[in-house]
Amino acid sequence: MKVGILGGGQLGRMLLQAAANYTVETYVLENDENCPAAHLCHHFFKGDIKDFNAVYNFGKNLDALTIEIESVNIDALEKLEQEGVKIYPTPAAIKTIKNKILQKEFYQKNQIPTAEFIITQQQNDLKNYTNFLPAVHKLAEGGYDGKGVQILYSDADIDKGFNAPSVLEKSVSIEKEIAIIIAVNDKKETAIYPPSEMIFDPVLNLLDYQLSPARIEVNELWKIESIALSVVKNLKSAGLFSVELFIDKEGNILVNETAPRVHNSGHHTIEANYCSQYDMLWRIILNYPLGNTKAILPSAIVNIVGAENFSGNAKYIGLENVLEMDNVFVHLYGKQITKAGRKMGHVTIISNDYADLTYKANKIKHALKVIA
Ligand SMILES: Nc1ncnc2c1ncn2[C@@H]1O[C@H](COP(=O)(O)OP(=O)(O)OP(=O)(O)O)[C@@H](O)[C@H]1O
Ligand SMILES: [Mg+2]
What we know:
Blueprint: E1 2-6, H1 10-19, E2 25-30, E3 43-46, H2 52-59, E4 64-67, H3 74-82, E5 86-88, H4 91-98, H5 100-109, E6 117-120, E7 135-139, E8 149-152, E9 166-170, E10 174-184, E11 190-192, E12 196-201, E13 206-212, H6 218-235, E14 239-248, E15 253-259, H7 269-272, H8 277-285, E16 299-305, E17 312-313, E18 315-317, H9 319-323, E19 328-332, E20 337-338, E21 343-350, H10 354-367, E22 369-371
Parallel strand pairs: 1-2, 1-4, 2-3, 4-5
Antiparallel strand pairs: 6-9, 7-8, 7-9, 10-11, 10-12, 10-14, 12-13, 13-16, 14-15, 16-21, 17-20, 18-22, 19-21
Helix pairs in contact: 1-8, 2-3, 3-4, 4-5
């Protein structure tokens, strides 16, 4: 089979690492020929994944397509789908998710619990909703890695709001942030991974580290699984999905957002679960049985991000100190240029003991630096 990936970042790279175990001919479309996935595919095509012709011409001779980012040209995917190219997930599902307004409306329509929200078209609209604050303003399209998300505490913050179509979402008192990955194949069979819990860096608004399986009560686990299943069932698409949720201080469970693709919250599945999320997506695309999602051992993920005040050719400080630790797995994404907060790699730690995971995660965070 000939399978194309739209986008050539680290998710594409890890997907290609897993593809090497199967008989599949891989294609990547991306603007930058030095992107993380460029050297691991069989055929690299330089082009804009947002451009109709680029996506259509890339996909028309392929058997199947998948994405590693949502900001792709949907019209081209719809045409390719009509012409018989299998697309994971369906263009309709990507369309719903890539726009945060449509995504929130989808939750509402399907009675999926999510924070209360108001739709705004321009910054000026925010003046009418000052009594809805504190709230989180989210750009409908084009945000990534926490950019495109702005907390508005009071009237004084209105000038920080987005002057483009956005969602204004009630601020949730978060007890825990959870992500859960669900695989769906063409037969509508599903496989659910154990959820992960996130710990965030309030400064960079980027994931700080993650623990998996999440330390939650069994009744919370059941609720999370059933809510996330209802999200993917209502999207009516095969593929691999990651649902991000909040548990609030009162124990309510609310969906934050969904990604219709392999996800940063699932990096640990490479070493810590019997079937990784990347292997799982190939099983779906190549029409093989779904894999075993169970954790072999608990795990943590530490993101390796570019240090503040450095930009230019990346240099890794402290790598040896990390590599000499037991049960620690380093993944560098092959990005030449670092800048503050840029995701450059991640480290997975596996251990029977959560205290050991947290200890090592903190140690790695301090030992490893990306400078220029
Ligand atoms: N309604 C809310 N109340 C409180 N905090 C929120 C709310 N919405 C989002 N956040 C915080 O902001 C973070 C980023 O929000 P969100 O996941 O919607 O944005 P994103 O740009 O898609 O981020 P990413 O790409 O990192 O997942 C969340 O993980 C959460 O910590
Ligand atoms: Mg998010």
